[in-house]
Design goal:
The complex is a heterodimer of chains A (234) and B (647).
Chain A (H helix, E strand, L loop, with lengths): L1 H24 L9 H35 E2 L14 H30 L6 E8 L2 E6 L5 E3 L2 E4 L4 E7 L4 E5 L4 E5 L5 E5 L5 E7 L11 E7 L1 H12 L1
Parallel strand pairs in A: 2-6, 5-11
Antiparallel strand pairs in A: 2-3, 3-4, 6-9, 7-8, 7-10, 10-11
Helix pairs in contact in A: 1-2, 2-3
Chain B lengths: L22 H7 L3 H26 L7 H21 L3 H7 L27 H30 L9 H36 L7 H20 L25 H29 L12 H32 L13 H18 L2 H15 L6 H15 L17 H10 L1 H15 L4 E2 L2 H24 L1 H7 L3 H31 L5 H28 L13 H31 L31 E2 L14 E2 L2 H5 L5
Antiparallel strand pairs in B: 2-3
Helix pairs in contact in B: 2-3, 5-6, 5-7, 5-19, 6-7, 6-8, 6-17, 7-8, 8-9, 9-10, 9-11, 9-12, 11-14, 11-15, 11-17, 12-14, 14-15, 15-17, 15-18, 17-18, 18-19
Classes of the chains: A alpha+beta (234), B mainly alpha (647).
Chain lengths: 234, 647
């Protein structure tokens, strides 16, 4: 039996290593471009580690059992009448409960921090309409643009509205998403960490042109942002 | 199933119950598809006249409004006329009108020829097969729709279809697979198996059971007919969020009403299961001796009865907004847009468990029997189903983490969502523990059961990512969600349906399927399934939203791989259908108990006698007593055994 446990453990380790390779060799997430997404990626990796362990344990037991105790289809003997094991059942109730509570607490903390207002936030109104986005800068004389331009390192506080059906504002590199819902105003924060151009994607099916409802997000330095605003105000 | 049951004597009917005399009169006036056709047409005409008459009376112009006529005459009156024509209401109408009825009329019970499968039949075994065959027809149609839009998605840009058609294909695929395949396929398997497992001669309400089945093709045809409507099929996703769905062309109303018929079918079947399980257990069959499949259908039925009225309500409200100009979900009239999502998901999240718990039951039967060991932790397995049932009602808003709902709802909904991993984990660990030291026979149903456990673990773990609010904010509405639901509903539910079909195939047909083809089916499905859906996790997290006909160039290669794999997945089911059809027609005759299982359905002939049991069995122990010397689940002929006569 002890030999069997060692074999099983070895199999689980092999599966865990292979799964870990799948998780790290491919870059599953876009390179983060926001403070918020950095925090989200921490949660992502916590969940990934737990997932790899659980996946490895379960698949190793299944594969090992089939390899070790497989019999021909016409075999008629029964296995041992094991009906359960209370201690084991308590363990596999308690450990997953503890793990998901850990994930829940970490997630709640990250969610709360991503919702906090930063210093000197920039207010932006995102208005969704079939099938385009419009961005309004109320701190800068209601400047309006089809392109989203944000200064790097400064928190943007989005308030979202929709003029027709539900849309969803998503910039994959920001890791932040929020629906624009007719009749109510919704909010989300993004603090860009690097300059560059990123796609703004509508993530909620909004009709015929949903797939083409795209805009550009341009993250620039503070000086470039001021210059851009000044040009738009003229 | 085509074999006859001459041994069951059907008594001659008294005069007033005999079908109309003369072949032509019988064809036209006797219950059946012909009467269904002309009564459907008649009711359609009456419905049309009703609409035109009322509109003319009230002076609503134009008097002819195609949308209203189609809704009232086509989607309400016509189906009622059809159901009356095939005879689904005959007994009740006789009773209501004070004409003589025969409570013990078994003329519509059991199948003596293949024609009996096309009639209103009160035998739960016939109804089970009607359900299963019908749902697999819609499985094929839903799969073909998916392959059409996968062809469109093979490269970026728009190639084959326009965007409204694309959205319609996506919406109809999901709708058919959910409402016309997974949910009713489980209802079909349970219809066949549950009364047998309980030691009951039939379901509690056989006529209601027949009616529940016949509502199903009506719903399916309604969903498909929407492709013929002006403006095309319903195209706002199977979730049909308002207000998008409210501004859609006529096809959307087909969805609104199709859901009503499918939902009514679900609710009636679930009530039937509940009453059957509570009142018709054989002597000695306590709740703690019920097979886990019965437990699974008990909890599923509770979910259906409590939750399904909510989706019915949500679709009625949308339809009222569309055709009666109410404003439940239009902000201009004071409506509340998020109200739709709350009501919709209050059904549609429990619906995920409606689509999963019966599969848990099937897999418990298969794994215990094929590993030849008692199910590990039977009571906790049953209680975890109840745990999922209760928790399942407290998590609906996790579909709305980015919907703009009240902020304070997010964390509590996240915690309950994550906690569902606990009872689900108990089930997975108990299945693996059942395998441990078993004598494992890798038959086709067992391969599908083990394939299910591994795929469901992946689907469950991706569910943890989506349950965590911050990660969900990034991943919701992307292909990651598409991957997740297909690991849960295909790698999960559909694999268990296949496991159940192979497992009970000998019981249902009296013949054995081809084991070699079954294994080929499993491996081709398993590989092509993973090639199709695993890469979707990646494209989703990298930035590809769901329900788009066009996407960034960067995702082109992987989408081509996904499309090719999806065609392979479609092709793999051809093996399944070939195996089923040829084995049903001329496979080797199956024994009563080919797997050596203990539960009651295996203790009677394959297929079972017309009323299941010659004598009601006496249940004496649990259903999984493998390896216990001399253990039995039930005594099949209690009276004879008491007299010392061998059964």
């Amino acid at each position: 039996m002890r030999k069997g446990i060692v074999q099983l453990a070895a199999l689980a380790v092999v599966i865990a290593v292979l799964t870990t390779l799948v998780a790290v060799v491919f870059q599953w997430l876009p390179t983060s471009a926001s403070v918020e997404f950095d925090r989200i990626q921490d949660v992502y990796w916590l969940v990934t580690i737990i997932s790899i362990v659980i996946f490895a344990v379960v698949t190793a037991i299944i594969a090992y059992s089939v390899w070790r105790w497989r019999v021909p289809a016409d075999d008629e003997e029964d296995g041992p009448p094991i009906h359960g094991n209370t201690a084991l059942e308590i363990v596999w109730t308690a450990i997953p409960a503890a793990l998901v509570l850990l994930i829940g607490i970490v997630s709640a903390v990250v969610l709360a921090r991503n919702g906090e207002a930063g210093p000197r936030p920039l207010r932006v109104e995102a208005v969704g309409q079939q099938f385009a986005w419009r961005f309004v800068y109320p701190d800068h004389g209601e400047v309006s643009s089809g392109e989203l331009v944000l200064p790097v390192g400064r928190q943007a506080q989005f308030t979202m509205r929709s003029l027709d059906v539900i849309h969803s504002f998503w910039v994959p590199e920001f890791g932040q998403k929020m629906d624009a819902v007719p009749g109510i105003v919704t909010t989300i924060n993004v603090t860009p960490t690097r300059t560059g151009e990123f796609p703004v994607v509508c993530a909620e099916l909004c009709g015929l042109g949903h797939a083409t409802m795209r805009a550009k997000a341009r993250i620039v330095s503070e000086a470039e942002f001021e210059q851009w605003i000044a040009e738009r105000r003229r | 199933m085509t074999q006859t049951h001459e041994e069951t004597r059907i008594p001659e009917l008294p005069e007033q119950f005999r079908p109309p005399s003369g072949p032509l009169r019988r064809l036209l006036l006797g219950p059946g598809l012909v009467r269904g056709a002309w009564m459907g047409a008649l009711f359609f005409a009456l419905g049309t006249l009703l609409v035109l008459g009322l509109r003319a009376w009230w002076g609503w112009l134009p008097v002819w409004d195609t949308h209203i006529v189609v809704t009232v005459a086509g989607m309400v009156a016509l189906p009622i006329g059809f159901l009356a024509g095939i005879g689904a209401f005959d007994y009740w109408l006789y009773y209501i009108s004070g004409r003589p009825t025969r409570p013990e009329d078994h003329s519509g019970h059991g199948a003596r020829s293949w024609r009996d499968y096309f009639r209103v039949n009160t035998d739960h075994k016939v109804i089970g097969i009607q359900y299963i065959v019908t749902t697999f027809v819609f499985f094929v149609i839903g799969g073909l729709l998916a392959m059409l839009f996968r062809a469109e998605l093979a490269e970026p840009g728009l190639q084959f279809v326009d965007s409204q058609t694309f959205n319609g294909l996506v919406s109809a695929h999901a709708t058919l697979m959910i409402f016309l395949f997974i949910i009713p396929a489980f209802a079909g398997i349970a219809n066949y198996v549950v009364p047998l497992m309980l030691g009951a001669p039939d379901m509690a309400f056989p006529r209601l059971n027949a009616l529940s089945y016949w509502l199903l093709p009506i719903a399916g045809i309604m969903f498909l007919a929407s492709f013929l409507a002006p403006g095309g099929a319903f195209a706002s996703g199977w979730t049909a969020y308002a207000p998008l769905s409210e501004g859609q062309p006529m096809g959307q109303t087909f969805f609104n009403m199709g859901v009503q018929w499918a939902g009514a079918s679900s609710i009636m079947t679930a009530l039937n299961f509940l009453v059957t399980i509570i009142t018709m257990r054989a002597p000695g069959m306590t709740f703690w001796r019920m097979p886990l499949l019965v437990w699974a259908n008990f909890t599923t039925s509770l979910l259906v009865v409590l939750a399904t009225p909510f989706i019915a309500g949500s679709q009625f409200f949308v339809m009222f907004d569309r055709i009666m100009h109410t404003s439940f979900f239009t902000p201009e009239g004071g409506g509340y847009v998020l109200g739709y999502q709350h009501i919709f998901w209050f059904y549609s999240h429990p619906a995920v468990y409606i689509m999963m718990l019966p599969g848990f039951g099937i897999v418990s039967e298969v794994i215990s029997t094929m590993a030849r060991k008692p199910i590990f932790g039977y009571r906790l397995m049953a209680l975890s189903l109840v745990g999922i049932l209760v928790l399942g009602f407290s998590v609906w808003a996790h579909h709305m983490f980015v919907a703009g709902m009240a902020d304070w709802l997010r964390v509590p909904m996240m915690i309950t969502t994550l906690l569902i991993a606990v009872p689900t984990g108990i089930k997975v660990f108990s299945w693996t523990a059942t395998l441990w030291r078993g004598r494992i026979r890798l038959t086709t149903p067992m391969l599908f059961a083990l394939g299910f456990v591994t795929m469901f673990v992946i689907g469950g773990l991706s569910g943890i990512y989506l349950g965590s609010v911050p990660v969900d904010i990034h991943a919701s509405d992307t292909y990651f969600v598409v991957a997740h639901i297909h690991y849960v509903l295909f790698g999960g539910s559909v694999f268990t349906i296949f496991a159940g079909i192979y497992y009970w195939f000998p019981k249902m047909t009296g013949r054995m399927y081809d084991e070699r083809l079954g294994k080929l089916h499993f491996w081709t499905t398993f590989v092509s399934f993973n090639l199709t859906f695993f890469p979707m996790h990646y494209v989703g997290l990298r930035g590809m939203p769901r329900r788009v006909f066009d996407y960034a160039e960067a995702f082109g290669d992987l989408n081509l791989v996904i499309s090719i794999a999806s065609f392979a997945l479609g092709a793999s089911t051809v093996i399944f259908f070939y195996n089923m059809v040829t084995s049903w027609a001329r496979g080797p005759v199956a024994a009563a108990n080919p797997w050596g299982a203990h539960s009651l359905e295996w203790q009677v002939s394959s297929p079972p006698p017309i009323f299941n049991f010659d004598e009601i069995p006496q249940v004496v122990a649990g259903p999984y007593e493998f390896g216990v010397p001399g253990a039995r689940h039930a005594i099949m002929s209690p009276a004879r055994e008491a007299e010392g006569v061998p059964a």
